[in-house]
Structure formats: structure tokens, C-alpha cells
């Protein structure tokens, strides 16, 4: 008996912990390099590079669409010189680097490779991941550049190149993370991510660039980037279901026999959608629960984890906030006994039943997508986008009705003063507006000196011409891209050359096909708002009120704009919504051409301080200063006050979760702008 007790208490060998990362980057390559080195010194075991929106969408910092976006949500990387500064003092052959980059993934990998070569690294030893999932960009993040088929070619060429030259690199990170942010259910997450994986693997196989006997190496390097929400039991079951579906696809569709190559390999960032501006201290326990969903089950444990900070619903986190998220991971890995045990859920009837339910639902949805011609066809038809918009609308409706409870938002709203947010000026990190001018000046200097000592790059025009010829033909584009990187070409020049050949793509918005998510029976809040809309239109002598929903700049996170557009439509507005990536000039012109009664701007990237005043000024110059402008997004309170003083009629932030109430407020602002008496209609 004593021997059994001794054996039971004997210390078990611990599993190796997951890679610990912090998604980071801002302002300049130099500032981001300093941040990375600080985080690595604190115990972070890998890098996760956040690029700014111009870099992600293939524009140089001095492009008109880059106004206000440079260095805001990530680091600007315009050429190999910036890449050198970004990774200075970080030996890339000993680093595992994740890069959140998609449409321009081939370009950023080329810059990374050139810097690694200059460091003397062996390319075969480089480890890391390029996200490179373009499908979810069409559906949720909005940083796509080229049409689906050319985009798929870029992905295919990059995968084939890395298999042959960088065998430890993950050339694609197929993402369900952003699908959940856009409203996907667990079944939709699994089905849409797996359908994307099938489209990519089919394209690589059919390209003929990888011989059949080496196709297992392609499958073995496919990785996934997954979301984990606060319903952590369901989320843990989702991860087990993901693993089961992936094993089935790789075995049955592609004939992969090696179980190591069939392993579902994934990294995770836990849910940012569920973080709240109200009582943001509650976000800490949400983050912990979400982390447990992807770490508790050994058989479905993430290989890499990055956690958001508690205050990301308020603005950019500070280095201290990022450290807090890192320490959450370290406490679980180093202080708890989690890594000492086999899978905790093996044999659970409850878990097995939920996993089977998710697998069945996902396979059925994948079959529907296959009947449409696959993931790319379902993107182009608008099917996938409309399904996500509908799912998100249903979720928002549940929150507004109180069916889905969010602590501090629609229940338990009373709160003591929060010392963490007592000084909002220091609670979040702000990017100095002067940074953009500095980056633009540095780019101009690079263009004029890149072919002179000490750089001595050849003039890039020949490399760019070769890239265009390759794009017009069938050769792998990676070698031509590397030549552009070595020649000192810029991000905008590389993407511009490909735009000339491939064209650009505007993804379907999914708004028109979204069904009504909130009832408008007599006595309901939506019915009251509909009455306000109709009475106001009658008072103004117009058939219907018209609302322009605009997304200025490069912020592609369109979920909020889409939900406003759908609810305004259901409330009786005629909605003008042209999707993402518009200049202030285009938005002002559309407002005049469509003779709208209100302009609603949605900005989540932090560029509101530059873009909103630009729209206001253009409307004033055009004689339309009487058209009210409302703004929604992640906008700190001091910035909101500045916008209101500049002439914005109303500012909405994540704490304003009631969309029907927002639409009612918009009607009120239209009445005020037109000097109409208020309507005493409860909303």
C-alpha cells in the first residue's frame, strides 16, 4: 500500500509548455524591436508580429489610403531596411516568429528570408508561421488585395517554395479566429476553416509544384489559428472536433498515412470579441477561462498561445498590460500541475457527445460548400459572408434581449470606481501622430538612397518588371518576389506591380442577404424606432430616411458597420453601404450624390483622429455641414470629446451594445440637425 501511495505521489514528468507569445508591434520598426526584446527578456518564447494596415494591404505609408493608419495597429514595414531594424539583435535561426500577414504574406516572408540570410542563418532551420489565409480576409478582417484566384495562387506558390527551401516553416495559418469574431458558430468555424484548408491543399496538389510522394510534407506544415471564447467547455470540445475532422480529411481525401503529418497543429489567441469596455477588469477572468479551453485537454492542446490584454476594448495595451497577459500563461504552465497529467477528458460521455455533434454539423456544412464549388466559389457568391453576418446579428439580438448575459454590460451593471481606468490617459497606449510623418520621411529617404552606399541595392524597376512577367505567366512568384526584396523595392511597389496584373477585389458585404434578426411586433423596441423613422421621413417630406455607413481608411473590421447597416435597414432606413476601404473624399462624395440624411463612420484602427475631421471638412466645403455625422469604434473618452467638439453629432463605443438604441439615437440626431421637435417615443 505504501508503495502504491509513493508511486501515486511521485512527481510526473511535465509536458513541454506551449509557445508563449504576445501579439505586438506599433509606431516604427525601431520601437517594435525594442518592445520585442523587452518581451523576450520577460520570458516570452516566440514572436508574434503585428503589422500596420498599410503593410497588410500593400500600400506605402505615403499612399492616400494610409492616412492616419501608419503604425497604429502594428508596425510599418516598407522595405528590407525596415525588416533589418525590426529584427535587429534577434537571431532568426533561434526564434519562432509568427507573422499576422495575409494578402502580402509572400512579400513579408521574402523580407524575413533576406534578413535571415544577412544574419547567416540556415533557411532550413527557420521556424515560424505566416498567416496567409486570404479567405477569412474576404469574410471578416478585410485586408484582402487581389481577387480570390490570384490570391490562391500566391498562397500556393509560397507553400510550394517553403516545402522545398524552408521545411520547418508553416507557410499558412488557416484561421477560424476571425470567423468567430465575425459571428461564426462553432460549427461554422470548423466548417469554413476546413473548407479553406481543402481549397488550399487542392490548389497545391493540382499545381504540380510538389510531387505526390512529398505531398505529406505539405499537409504536415499546414497549421491553424483558432479562437477560444468564454464558453470554455464548448470551446474545448470544438478543438477536439477540429482534430477529428482534420484527421478524417487528410486521411480520406489526401491519403496521408503518417499520423504525425495528420496531426491538427494550431495556435490560438483567445477571444477579443468578448472583451468589454464596461467593467474591463472582468476581461481578466474571461481571458483565463478562454485560455483553459485550449490548454486543459492534452489531446487537443494548442501549440502556441497569445492572450489579449484586459484593456483592448479601450485601446492599444501598454507594455505592462501585455506583461500581465504573459504572466497569466506562465502561472498556468509553471505553477499549476496541468502539464503533469494525461488528457483529463478522455472517456467523458458529455464531452464525446458534444464533439460528435460538432463534427456532424461541420461535415454537413462542408458538404454544402463543396456542392457550391468549394470555399472560393462560396466567397465569390457571397454565401459565406451572408451566413456570418446573419449569425452575428442573431448573437447581437440575444445580447440586447438579455438572453445572452454579459456581466457588466446587460447585467450586474452597478460598479465601484475602477482604479485601473482612473486615468484613461495612461490606461492605454497611444501612438504619437508625429510618427506617421517620420515614417513617410524615412520612406522618401529610402527611395532616394537605396541604390547608394551603404545599401547598394540595384534599382528595383527591373525586379518589378520581372515580377509582372512572372505574374502574367505561370512560374512560381516567390523567386521574383525575393529579387524585388533584395533590390530594395517597397511594399507598395511590390503590391502595385501585382495589382497591374491581377486587379483588385471588393468582397461582398453580406448585408442585403442577411435576414431580419430582431422582431418588430407592436410594443417592441424596434417597432418604436421604425415609427420614429417613418414619422421623421414624413416630417422631412422624403420617402425614406437615408443613412450612409462608411468605412474610411484601411480598417477592414466591418462587423460593427454591417450590424448597424442591417438594423437600420430593418428599422426602415434606406442604407447606402459600399463596404470597406474608402477615402474621406469618396465618403463625402457618396453622401452628396446619395443625398443622405446622416453619415455613420465606423473605425476600429485608431485612425479616427485624422479621418473623421477630414470627412467633416469635406462635407462643410461642399455645403453639407447640416448632415449629421456619427462615429462608432474603439475610441478613448478623450478622443470622443475631441470629436464631439469638432462637430461630430454622436460617438458610439463598445459599451453601446444596444444596436436598436443606436439607430434610435441616429434618428434623434437627424431631427436635431433639421430643427425638428424631439419625438417622445420610448426606445
TrEMBL record:
Domain B12-binding: 544-673
The protein's required cofactors: adenosylcob(III)alamin
Keyword Metal-binding set for record: yes
Molecular function terms, GO-annotated: cobalamin binding; metal ion binding; methylmalonyl-CoA mutase activity
Pfam families (alphabetical): B12-binding, MM_CoA_mutase
Matching InterPro entries: Acid_CoA_mut_C, Cbl-dep_enz_cat, Cobalamin-bd, Cobalamin-bd_sf, MeMalonylCoA_mutase_a/b_cat, MMCoA_mutase_a_cat
Keyword line: Cobalamin, Cobalt, Isomerase, Metal-binding
Gene3D superfamilies associated with the record: Cobalamin-binding domain (3.40.50.280), Methylmalonyl-CoA mutase (3.20.20.240)
Keyword field contains Signal: no
Similarity remark: Belongs to the methylmalonyl-CoA mutase family.
PANTHER family with a match to the protein in the record: COENZYME B12-DEPENDENT MUTASE (PTHR48101:SF3), METHYLMALONYL-COA MUTASE, MITOCHONDRIAL-RELATED (PTHR48101)
Quaternary data: Heterodimer of an alpha and a beta chain.
Protein name in UniProt: Protein meaA
